[in-house]
Amino acid sequence: MPIKRALEEKGSRARRCVIIEKVIIDPKTVSASISYQLLTATVIPRPIGFISSISALGIVNLAPFSFFNAICGEPPMIMFCPVNRRPQKDTLLNVQATREFVANIVTEEIARQMNLTAGDYAPDVSEFDISGLTPIASDIVKPPRVLESPVNMECKVFDIIEVSDKPGGGSVVIGEVVRFHVLDSMISKDMIIDPQGLHPIGRLGGSSYIHVHDRFNMIRPVIKK
Fold it and tell me: 156-165, pLDDT tens digit by residue?
């Protein structure tokens, strides 16, 4: 139910009342699908981790995850979060078995191919074949990199945490980056990457995505001690 909250603002000349209307939602009183919709429509834009993995039988898998982010700088670590499926997602089964994966960055140039890999294909189907993307050997881990992606991160699994075993639950896969691969034209001698040249895309709610074209800079305040 919507509520109205009155805030009083005191100025030098006048006093005015601002009415702010908000809907209060208790996640325990709505379905899991509504909670998921609220999360994915508001926690935006989300980076996309294009995860390549390999099964114990040597079958290569490629799948996008928008529950994906960097979480540590020393050592460098990233995470992605497979949601629960029945049967379970191939990527989660693969990283549980082999403890390795590659995170490939999704750009505008491979957005269409990335979307093709999002289908629920049979475990014996390689999404590299479906998408037409090119697998290329990694340096350290067994899963291949995506040649068409300008940035690849070879990862060893640090931990896999099951957050919830409910149908709308999932797991957090944390990986330590053991090798970066960055397209030469996108990185400076000082190891700085220009996001304007990277052309990454982000995930919004539903079937919507976003280009990263407009940006602005802000210098954080320096507090003297």
Answer: 999 999 999 9
- Domains contained in the chain, number: 1
pTM over 0.85: yes
Residue 24 lies in a domain: no
Report the CATH number at residue 110: 2.30.110.10
| Number of other CB atoms surrounding residue 202 within 10 Å | 16
Please indicate, yes or no, if residue 225 is contained in any of the structural domains.
Answer: no
DSSP 107: B
Print the domain residue range for 135. Answer: 46-211
Residue 28, domain member (yes or no): no
Residues 144-161: b if buried by 16+ CB within 10 A, e if exposed? bbbebbbbbbbbbbbeee
Query: How far is Cα 218 from Cα 223, in angstroms, rounded to an integer?
Result: 15
46-105 residue pLDDT tens: 999 999 999 999 999 999 999 999 999 999 999 999 999 887 889 999 999 999 999 999
